[in-house]
Amino acid sequence: MSIITPKMRLNHENFLIVLALIFLFSKFINAEGNNKFRVDYERNIFLKDEQPFRECSGEMHYFRVPHQYWYDRLVKLKQMGLNTVQTYIEWAFHEPKEGFYRFDGDRDFIKFFEIARALNISVFLRPGPFINAERDLGGLPSWILGKTNKTRETDPVYQDAVARWFGKLLPMIKPYLYATGSGPILTVQIENEYGFEEICDHSYLMWLRDLVRRYLGDEVVLYTTDNSIDSKLDCGIVDGVFSTVDFGPGINPSVPFSRQRAVRPKGPLVNSEYYTGWLDYWTFEHQKRPANYIAENLARILDYLNETVHVSLYMFHGGTSFGMANGGSIENDTFFGQTTTYDYDAPLNEAGDPTEKYFALQKVIFERCRGIPVPPGQVPAISPKMGTGPIKLTPFLDLYGFMAHQGVKRISSIEPMTFENSGVSHGYLLYSTKILFDTPTSSVLDINPLEDRATIYIDKVYQGTLSKTEKTFSLKINARRGSQLDILVENQGRLSNGPMINDHKGILGDVKLDGQVLRNWNHAFVENWEDIFEDSSSLRDTLMNKEIQHDVSLPTSVPTFMRAIFVFPANSPIYDTFFMPSNLVKGVVYLNGRCLGRYWPKTGPQITLYTPGVWLRPYPQKNEIIVFESDPSPCVTTNDCEIQFVLEHNIDGPTPRRIKN
Q: Catalytic amino acids?
């Protein structure tokens, strides 16, 4: 295999021992808890140890960046002139199954806090429980919808789940509060943009405030974030909690700040989300915002009325929605799944490289937040990348072989069940039934409501695709008495915000054939497709057993798992790269047990998938690529499917739609 690579660079040294020493030292010198951070409402400023503190912050989500790169990204945040990082904690990321918690690897936010402290970077923490962040169900675990349809409001079932989660989470956070004398966390947010929730349940917000206080104490500063529209602010404010607003470029800061003053006459002016770019949806053009435009508007905000205005860049570094944890959005009354990339056109791009926007904003930040010019040497370099030649994929398992495996769960019911009632979080659910009546040569299948996208098979022959996004819910099919109907439904991402946040997936109503309701359904699924091919997965071991083979007699339109094994040349350095789906159509890809995400190059705008070098294995270890091609694929028919790793990222491919700004 040939490797294409620029010049080598030095990696950041592992400094976990240093972090541990810093932690112990800070615990010793601050044993009496003398640190203090508070809001001075008379002078409209923040005070840190009784000295004025100006928040010049950047948003970065630890769960969107491999933990091996946290140090690199936070160093670049500091080099940009920022003194604070703002980040969410995603409930679903840490409790994927009820009562089962994970805080290892990329989930180890304690390590993230320790790195921030070592670099003298403060933290504004956003623990939710709802976070939006363009994540599936806004970061709430999908299993909650199997228990209640009431979230983000006064509901005993929901509140009990939140209380148990916060009972686990908040004691872990408390040692890292600045107020306790040993951590970088200055403030903690209550909920997130609650004004967008039309329920406007102040009792719930006060309950959540009191729950946080119970674990974190009265010393920590609590805050809320809301859109600056009057009604949104009214629903989001909480007694005894500091209020901030969020708004993007092109808005006169006097408008949102005057609204902040209307609900909070005193206190610092804070734009807690200044948008440096925007998110992407499948089928829509890639969103970009000019660097000078973002920088000029940032300067305008920071110069507002000569006040000490505080700003957090959303995003400083967007990162990647690895796996299938991306959310969905409603645009122009139509549902769209969000892309795997969360590049966001941010100053630091998805691969962690500085952009033109980085340097334009750096100049503004140093001039206003620090009052000094950009110092020499503070120019982070673009990291080297590598590429490969084409890599051939070999089919090893079809959908039916997969779903028939003993490790796959099955449920039978008279009516179709949703993902949530079946216990499925992300990925796919296969619905199957027999047609028990005579049908004409051409019949009409109706599925409505459908969430989100379904590929239809009669006797394992592909019939067509239905889609919530395309608003296609009916399809002509060729069926007969005794035929097996299979419907493979993909969850393209639960809504990440808005009044319809309790977003169930799958088939939510009747399935009809020529007007007759079909009953007696079998459901085949795994709870979380992201975890199928993890190295520790017992299901993976049995699926990869040589006795399980791709059935070559099946129609080639059947969804297929394909595999490739490759080894890098000896002494070849390993760098970041980008997965190119080449002649694939649609599906998900796994690299060495890690799910890189979804690919769908025909719809755009995302073509390639960011591939962290730390997930690749150097010589002589083997690397394994597993692809699930979920749509009919010509290359499966001709047995010439291939992928490649390339030097350049392409998230700006051609698309059928344009955003209406």
A: 193, 273
